[in-house]
Amino acid sequence: MSPYFVLGVAVACVSVGSILVRLAQAPAFAVSFHRVFLASLLLAPFALRPALASWPALSRRNRWVLLASGLALALHFATWIASLSYTTVAASVLLVNTTPLFTVAFAWGLLRESAPPRVLGAIALALVGAGLIAAGDWSGGATNPLLGDGLALVGAVALSLYHVIGRGLRAALPLNAYILGVWGAAALVLALVCAGSGVPLTDYPPRTFALFLALALVPTLAGHGLVNRSLRHLPAPTVGLFLLGEPVGATLLAYALLGETPGTWTLAGGGVILAALVLVVVGRNA
Q1: CB burial class (10 A; 0-12, 13-18, 19+) of residue 2?
Q2: 78 CA to centre of own chain
Q3: For residue range 7-48, what is the model confidence (pLDDT) as tens digits?
Q4: What pTM value is reported for the model?
Q5: Boundaries of every domain in the chain
Q6: N or C: at which end does the chain have fewer Cβ atoms within 10 angstroms?
């Protein structure tokens, strides 16, 4: 099977995530918990044995790092999923996909990793694109799109922190054990948040639970799993460029299934952000 076909299927699976969140019509904390918890349960049969074998050898510091990674991932899911209640799918997915820009910025500022001038320019360009989207949402309205835009950006920052924090752990643990540990930590954090905020985890109709399961299976396990498989056969820049299809796919699905048409400002800002992301993907490997 062509690795490009596999990568295309991965992008299609990931693009479905925002649509499934909308269709679930449940509180963001509950959707976030069930997505990561059910994905952990489905992964456990393949990851539990290497996890049990490798976790005892983890240093105390790495165990704290694992918890911090799970906390960052929980914040990502909670804020990005919440953003879809306030702004359009197009704006939310475009803004949360600025994660590579923040990852470069954190690696540059915190880890002292070098960044080519082209990449730093791309970060500034993406901020212009985000500003264009915000300008189009400035009028506000009942759904408070500016709040949604802000939550999506927080989700991007949280995911970039997850990437930066977990770099050392990926070398200390087998991949499946690392993923299971981080997802399990994120599920625990989200369960505590739901309990503290009074958000129920069980009082939902079967249709909603079916959508929770679909979120765990399609964008989480299948989508990200196929991305990891593609990285074994294709260069990282190629995979990164393909993944820029997620905002496009999600926007088209939202138009076809939800009747959601992105505004002119969102399209303009999205074009600028996608151009900036192309510069980052290419520039980091130039």
Answers
A1: exposed
A2: 10
A3: 889 989 999 999 999 999 999 999 999 999 999 999 999 888
A4: 0.87
A5: 3-283
A6: N
